[in-house]
Design brief:
Order of helices and strands: HHEEEEEEEEEE
CATH architecture: Sandwich
Distance between the termini: 80 Å
Strand content: 35-45%
CATH superfamily: Immunoglobulins
Number of strands: 10
CATH topology: Immunoglobulin-like
Shape: elongated
Oligomer: single chain
Length: 142
Amino acid sequence: MNELIKRAGHAPPPRPPTFVALSLVLCLSAGCAPYLHTTPRSPEVRGRVLDARTRTPVEGAKVFLTEHPSVSTVSDGEGYFRLKETRNFHYAATVPEGHLPAPEYWGAAITVSRTNYITYLQAGPDARWVADKGEILLEPSP
């Protein structure tokens, strides 16, 4: 029969992927439910980059999450920057309050770099949590 369908130019209907079916069975037997959802990975981070000596805006400074440089932006003409929030994607929820796959939190610690300035690396206990960075003062290179 399949040979006749193939000759007529029609393909048989696709079968559900075995991996998906097996994952669903394992998930349900382990006490989790299929549930597409997201959780925060890094918050929106914003602030302003200024020259430490003159207090003038620094345009074109590269700002990125210290541990994840691919999440980056550049300061505008007034020195302002904004890194967009990133999120984890999950395909299931487990009891109590678990997620598959497990969520990651990247935090909000940033690095700021610009030609002719010393690179600013944010450190300290609040670096991972505080999203409003306020004014960041870049020291000119010696």
